[in-house]
Amino acid sequence: MKNFSAALLLVAVSAPAFAQSGTSPAQTAAHEATFICWYNPQGKLTSAEPSATNGPIRYLMLTGRGDDHAWAYKIHSTDGHDCPARVPQP
Hints:
By secondary structure, the protein is an alpha+beta fold. It contains 2 helices and 4 strands. Strands 2-1-4-3 form a 4-stranded antiparallel sheet, with no helix packed on it. The longest helix has 20 residues, at 2-21. It starts with a helix and ends in a 13-residue tail after the last strand. The model is unreliable at 1-28 (pLDDT under 50).
């Protein structure tokens, strides 16, 4: 009976949080897209753009270019603002 009461209390306490936010975690995940985070040769984030291709997520790739697109790192995000500020370590 204790486990049932604890579970009921947890549901009762967490339900208002979902009601206030207006979006559930499932709705947020549905709006995620794949973004490429671009880094310069020094490893600083320069930009992010939607990815047109599917491929491995969280995979670091050296592009062979020496400009602001020297490194590419693909993530799932709602808007590309989740890119790490520095190039992730492989």
